[in-house]
Amino acid sequence: MASAVQPLRVCLRACRRAPAPQRNFAPPPRLPIPIARRTFSSTPAQWRRAAEEDEGDEEAEKRVLTKEELDGMGVLEGIWDKLPPADRQSMEKTLNSVEAEAREAVAPPKVLMKKRFWNDEESDSDLITDEQNEDMFDEDDIMSMAHGKFEEFREYREYARIAAWEMPLLSKLARPFVPPTAEEPLRFRYTSYMGEFHPAENKVVVEFCPKDLPLDEAQQLKMKKLLGPRYNPETDIAKMSCEQFEHQAQNKRYLGDVINSLIEKAKDPTDMFEDIPLDTRHHTFKAKPKFPTEWRMTEERRRFIEEARQKSLLLDQAKEEQGALVDGPARIQQFLEQPAAFGERQYATQQLRGPAARGRL
After folding, report:
1. Is 113 within 8 Å of 120 (Cβ atoms)?
2. Which candidate, 12, 37, 164, places its Cα nearest to that of 103?
3. Cα dihedral value 263, 264, 270, 273, nearest 10
4. Sign of the CA dihedral 145, 146, 150, 156?
């Protein structure tokens, strides 16, 4: 049986051909179909409808099997039942593969769509709605972008309701602030993005002051030298961070282990790095301008300014009585009137002299 199926597979492979390139030809002109007239008839010719043609084709396909064909099918069923299960499975696989090849050979060629300039076939990631499985727009509803806008408004209203009704209930869980004690010198900082995934969410930052650690002055100086650029000499605070692990607890544990190892190294008396100075080149000291102390308003300065104002007022009154006080607005008006008078006199002298002769120096 397998030998009979093998030639069929080879024939199907031979029937396969590469799909020819599609060519767009102009459709042929539609010519009137000549209809033969019946000689002895006064009624026009009537054509059979398409539905009647389909029914006729279905009736032609329905054919009653003959006795010989039924006997052959019974013989094949008897042979099939007598075959062992292993042969049945192998024959079923062969028949399935032949059927798949036959479908592939009969199937129409696949036309590869070229990538368009405007990328119309790509989906828009900016839209909230999914336009892939939507029905056609029948002018009976708003557009998909309007539905997305309404969804945004619903989300805003939901958070507004939470802020109005549920957030005040958190005041019952509030705890009074307790400042850290001397036994808690480390300050950890975490970052949360309100339930959303972010690659920087696992980052943990720790800050501490070397003076708060159980170290003496020499050990604190050694600790500052070991910290290197992580130490800020202006604020006297060391800052370290870690984000190489997946969870925040792992990064926090790693930072704690690093600080413990630094404390052990700082307490090691074998080498205190006394010959190495503290390097602060990594930090830029910025000069912060301060308000001069001499300009601060004190009670003595207020009294001095008030006395100076009183003296200037008395001096102006004395000059006014003597007539020696200068009137500023009058002097300005006098100065503005002088150039106008000088210009009028110059214009009058030019009128008396007459126009100058042209072409003469």
Report:
1. no
2. 12
3. -30
4. positive
Q: Angle 278-282-286 (CA atoms, 0-180°, nearest 5)?
A: 105
Number of residues in the chain: 361
Name the CA dihedral angle for 89, 91, 96, 100, rounded to a multiple of 10 degrees. Answer: 140
Reported pTM: 0.42
240, 205 in Cβ contact below 8 A?
yes
The rounded Cα 291 to chain-centroid distance in angstroms is 45
| Measured distance CA(214)–CA(185) in Å, rounded | 10
Which amino acid does the sequence have at 58?
E
Q: Could you read off the pLDDT of 241-264 as tens digits, one per residue? A: 999 999 999 999 999 999 999 999
pLDDT tens readout for residues 98-147: 778 877 777 776 655 555 555 555 565 555 555 555 556 667 788 889 99
Return d(Cα 258, Cα 206) in angstroms, integer: 11
The answer to whether residues 240 and 206 touch, using CB atoms and an 8 Å cutoff, is yes
Helix (H, G, I), strand (E, B) or coil at 204: strand
Q: Give CA 261 to chain center in angstroms.
A: 40
> Sheet holding 231-232: strands in order across?
187-190, 204-208, 237-242, 231-232
C-alpha torsion angle, residues 293, 298, 300, 304 (rounded to 10) = 90
Query: What is the token pair recorded at 249?
Result: 């607890």
96 vs 81, 93, 100, CA distance in Å?
Answer: 19, 5, 6
Distance CA 124, CA 105 (A): 37
User: Which structure tokens are listed for 57?
Assistant: 């084709």
Q: Does an H or E element contain 163, and which? A: none
Nearest partner of 229 among 301, 305, 171, 280, judged by Cα: 280
Compute the C-alpha angle 113/118/124, nearest 5°.
Answer: 95
